[in-house]
Design a protein that fits this description.
nine-stranded mixed sheet; Dihydrodipicolinate Reductase, domain 2; 344 residues; alpha/beta; globular; six-stranded parallel sheet
């Protein structure tokens, strides 16, 4: 049937997976049919909440004929492995950020899914925040003039327990967030990738060079807990990323409503809900936009993904888009280690 729901299996029932499950259940074009997690308690809890069965082995879920697509919400270093297994099993896949631990792995996934005629995507739900579409519209209309300076604010605080239990106090400790090899980075990769992607989407600009310094000041981890990044964009604009999860008093993660400024020669846009702007004609304005939760944004993304899968095409280039945002962050880490500017 042309209007049949896309049947999903969920790989990973931690904090991200719980949001995925809610979005799948709330999207009229998708249906959650099976969940999997190595921790039976977590799998059982999500399964009970959504009235579906559970398994404890990803391989068992991928072998299930009811599952046509999978949402991958596993620790970062497992994304590549299990997305490849999903492709081998003939399943479409949508993968949690940062997609993979390296851009090379991400490129491999894109090629494998394309060869098999399967739809691959990445969770970029911030693009579905109502203020994002309004900001994009205003900037394209020239409201701010030529963009010349952009600030991305990823400042907040995470308790030390986060590195083992996540932000939602998962039931068993894990070490994967602490290591470069298994997480691919600290707050810039874990969280900032959403805002880098959002700024790229709203402005249409690409970062061409970065210069960074980073440190680990408070948390007992291998990855950074603080990084400062200078940016140059392809239109010549400059910018910066202020990022720290050791910044006590600067708010808390996850940052769901953005705090980024886009300054132009004729005004600025403050990415927030409601959206705020300042220009030469109207001066300060508040643009009321609909309120939308993260799961609601994810459900909208899933609807687009389901249509793409039904039509046998890529989902809006989202897999390519997350690799572009990811490369900006990888270049920042490279610059911080080498202490020289890095071209993106």
């Amino acid at each position: 049937m042309a209007n049949a729901k896309l049947k999903f299996g969920l790989l990973g029932c931690g904090a991200a997976g719980q949001l995925h499950a809610e979005a799948i259940a709330n999207c009229p074009d998708t249906e959650l049919v099976l969940v999997a997690d190595a921790d039976e308690r977590m799998a059982r809890d999500v399964a009970r909440r959504h009235g579906v069965p559970y398994v404890c082995a990803a391989e068992e879920l991928l072998a299930d004929e009811r599952v046509a697509a999978v949402s991958v919400a596993l620790p970062h270093h497992l994304h590549h492995q299990y997305a490849l297994q999903a492709a081998a099993a003939g399943k479409h896949a949508i993968v949690e950020k940062p997609f993979t631990t390296s851009s090379a792995q991400g490129r491999e996934l894109i090629e494998v899914f394309a060869r098999r005629g399967l739809t691959l995507s990445a969770w970029l739900e911030r693009r579905y925040m109502p203020f994002a579409a309004k900001a994009r519209e205003l900037l394209q209309a020239g409201m701010a003039g030529r963009l010349i300076y952009i600030t991305i604010n990823v400042l907040g605080y995470k308790p030390r327990a986060y590195w083992e239990y996540g932000m939602r106090n998962e039931t068993f400790p894990s070490q994967w967030r602490k290591s470069w090899e298994t997480s691919a980075g600290g707050p810039l990769m874990m969280n900032g990738i959403h805002q880098v992607d959002l700024v790229r989407y709203v402005t249409g600009l690409e970062v061409v060079e970065v210069y960074a310094r980073m440190g680990t000041f408070y948390h007992d981890v291998e990855v950074e807990d603080t990084i400062a990044v200078m940016l140059e964009f392809d239109n010549g604009a400059l910018g910066r990323i202020d990022c720290s999860c050791a910044a006590y008093g600067a708010g808390a993660f996850p940052i769901q409503h953005k705090r980024d400024y886009l300054y132009g020669t004729d005004g600025y846009v403050f990415l927030s809900a409601p959206l705020e702007t300042y220009d030469r004609i109207y001066e300060h304005r508040v643009h009321e936009v609909p309120a939308r939760t993260v799961p609601e944004c994810k459900a909208l993304e899933l609807a687009d993904f389901a249509r793409a899968a039904a039509e046998g095409r890529p989902h809006g280039g989202f897999a390519e888009e997350i690799l572009k945002s990811k490369r900006v962050i990888e270049a920042a880490y490279e610059s911080a280690r080498s202490r020289v500017p890095v071209r993106v």
